[in-house]
Amino acid sequence: IAHIGIIYFVFIIGLEIDPSSLQRTGKYAIFAAACVMFPFAVGAISGKLVHTYLAIETNKSSFLTFLGVTLSITSFSVLARTLTEHKLINTNLGLTTLSTAMFIDSWAWILLSMAFSLSSGNLPAIMWTMASGMVFILWSVKVVKPAVLWVSRRKQKGEVVGELSASVILVGVMVWALLADAIGINAVSGAFVYGLMIPYGPLGVALIERVDDFVEGLLLPLFFAICGLRSNLYSVSNVWAAVALAMVALLSAAAKVAACMSVGYLYDMPLNDRFAMGLLMSTKGVIEMVILKIGRDMEVLSEQAYSILVVMSVVVTIAVGPLLKLATTSNRGQASYQRRTIMWPDPNSELRMLVCVHNTRNIPSMLGLLEACCPTKRSPVFVFALHLVELTGRASAMLVVHDTTGSASSSDPQQLHKVPLGRSRHMIQALESYAQRAAGVTIQPLTAVSSYSTMHVDVCGVAEDNCVSLIVLPFHKQPTVDGDMQVINPAIHSLNQSVLANAPCSVAILVDHGLSGPHAVHHVAVLFFGGPDDREALALASRMAEHPAVSLTVFRFIPGDDSATLPSMRRYGSNYSDEVLTLEEDEENEEQLDEAYITEFRLKHVSDETVVYTEKVSNNAEETVAVIRSMEGIHDLYVVGKGGGSSSPLTEGLTEWCECPELGPIGDMLASNDFNANASVLVVQQGMQEHEMAAGMVEESPRKPR
Questions:
Q1: Cα–Cα distance between 323 and 243 in angstroms, integer?
Q2: Tens of pLDDT along 185-233?
């Protein structure tokens, strides 16, 4: 029964691999070749000594081939789950590793078939088995694949795969396993070839739905139990030979790391990424257990060798997790990309944005904001559109990457059919339609499936791994028909706060009040009180001002004479100390940076009639609120900084009435039901590492805690 489970499990693995993708790039093939040849050579060379000491009776060529295949293979399914757990699936490291593992899985079965052929030791039998295997594969391609494609086309036209068709295909797995076993290349290889013939699409999803839970939930655990029962460490009589074989297994893992380090150097991969990839390629799992069991059944491996290799597989796989976490953590700490903010010396460089959406209602407002950012071929915008889906039911957490053809790939293809991607496809179509019409816009659709408690990790991970400068989040409230703001999901509120606290770059929260469609934004207002968040908001608005259909008004609030001397004594009284003096020095530095950036902004737009700069004098919060209320009904979009005015006497007392602290005092007031203006609000928080440009020079200063 366990053997039947393995046959269907390997069939599912073959079904998940897209043979056409193996032809699209050569980089992964080079990685795969190095990851196979290096450990295969280590196993083959070192195995000569082990073969003699462990008293293995089978011929040496077959043993060396089996040992080399066992040490060089990578478990595709375990690797996918490891990448998902470490949030690496959408990184260059994750995509490269998965594609390389796909190559290795395909090559490993060819090498394994050669090992089966060599096990007989009879040259005519070897030639007959290899020739029969070639005919078997060709027959599968010419006969089985066209028939399966015909069934698959029916499925794509909307016809459900019936019980009879599905049963015939699944019974075909056993038939191909029997034929492969009869010609001498093992039943498991036949099931893998049969899985390759079936395209992973609607038909493949339907087949996986029928057998996945039964195979992985019931049959596969039986196989692992049998592997454990057949392992007998008491059978190891030659300790030195056992140590030698364990060292061979460790050396093969080190050889994979060395292979990835060498090839990665040729492709200019970061050092930590190369090391992490080597660790990932050393991952062992079900497939290696299958090969070891087959080798034991054919008596290619002795009981001692089998037991030692099973234990070493477990040891190596356990060691991969902590080492990988160390490597990726170190890598994320060191790989700080330069452009973490919108403020940047080169305004024409590409702006990379991560736009998050929860439902279709978020799409029009996000497209309106994207259009307002004035993407052009000279100043392009690269958008990562991330659809956030709550983890429910039987699905597992994953990050799904969509391509332009509408197909989706995931770190865990076996769980992909359990994820509701219907809404994602509608959103992707809207985004792609806009990208085709607009110049200078590139959109990469993604779907993140996870619980709301950990969803911020996915958002921040995608932003950091793709060098994003700005994350745009939808507000957790949406307007109703009568104009009030209604909470959509309280978990979104917590998600936005977590992203703001952990984001590696600038973050903006969009409060939508009809900001929909291209060319929907016409009148933009910036309320500038000072500070890094307000400077970041002004930088984004400055980019919007380049749009020919957008008019920009910048309101700078300046303390009046009555408030100029109040802050220090009012806030600190008699506790005026060195700490207060230091704080005042920091405030003076911020004021200098504000003044420098305002001057630069005005010089940039001095000849632009659509950009208006005005100063508003205010002495206290009441006057500030009155000035802002006088703007009601004039502007379509307000752009404000999250921390704007939070420590200013002009807004003193407003923070205590904040219903949504993540918007800051000004943003919260603009988004409240009390503010009657039917205008959208964009609240900006600058990234943790700001790059300032004052007086023509870039100054780096760490973000000060508030």
A1: 23
A2: 778 888 888 888 887 666 777 787 788 888 888 888 898 888 888 888 7
At residue 526, what are phi and psi to the nearest 5 degrees? -115, 125
Burial-class residue 225 by CB neighbours within 10 Å (0-12, 13-18, 19+).
exposed
DSSP 701: E
Rounded distance between C-alpha atoms, residue 454 and residue 396, angstroms: 13
| CA distance linking residue 80 with residue 97, whole number of Å | 9
For the record, the structure tokens of 330 come out as: 């170190």
- Sequence-distant (6+) residues with CB within 8 A of 499 are 456, 459, 460, 471, 473, 507
- Strand 485-487 relative to strand 523-528, pairing: unpaired
pLDDT, one tens digit per residue, over 71-81 is 888 877 777 77
Distance CA 37, CA 403 (A): 32
pTM exceeding 0.70? no
User: Which structure tokens are listed for 379?
Assistant: 């100043």
Spatial separation of the C-alpha atoms in residues 501 and 54, rounded to whole Å: 58
Cβ-Cβ contacts under 8 Å for 159 (sequence gap 6 or more): none
Please report the sign of the dihedral spanned by the C-alpha atoms of residue 295, residue 297, residue 301, residue 306. Answer: positive
Lowest mean pLDDT across 345-349, 665-669, 695-699 = 695-699
How many helices and strands (H and E) does the chain possess? 25, 16
- Residue 241: DSSP 8-state: H
Q: Which amino acid is at 187?
A: A
Give the C-alpha separation, 526 to 641, whole Å: 9
Token couple for 409 = 């790939």
Q: How far apart are CA 20 and CA 103, in angstroms?
A: 11
